[in-house]
Amino acid sequence: MPLSPIRLRLSVAVLCFAAVALAQQPYNWVNNPPPVEVFAPSFEKVWAASYEKPAFQSIKGRLIPEDGTWSTLAPLLGMSRCWLRELPTPDGVKLLLHAHTVDVPYWVYECRLEAGIGATKGYSNLVKAVEKSRQDWQISPNGGRSVEFGLGDEERMTTLREDRKIFMTSRGNVSVKNSGVSVEIRIKREICTEPLCNHSVR
Asked: Quick one: which of 69, 117, 122, 173 could link to 83 by a disulfide (CB 3.0–4.6 Å)?
């Protein structure tokens, strides 16, 4: 039996509402990964901020006293949480910098996705998106290791495979890691030890 005009309009409205609701669902690297054309500008904003002196200052938020990290004004799409962290300058670099009396705060940008059993799928999707976001990557081979942990007692041990891929340029790198239950990404800039480093070149 053909639909009445009112029922037809209602059906069309329901379908349109469902399509809009689906499109507005938050991105998630396991079930709803953002398209590369959507992810790339978000990623590029963070990558560009890594060239700042100190790094990431334009996207630095407030201090989180509980863990000593800083929130970020530019979280990556599809991640559970993103933050900035200041690390000690490596000893070998300190020796090189001392001759130039240069103080280099060593900041890194990190995000984590709590993915549970979907971590492997989320890791694969995020790796593909990072790889396609820029054309100048040097990509490390797939690396990883097996990790054992106990579930309440020493006799019950579970082995997880921890996978990692690193995307490198001459001035920085992006590390994507699958820990078995979560997916993590770290963006950091290599510390320049030359007195006349050009920090504006991307």
From this structure: 69
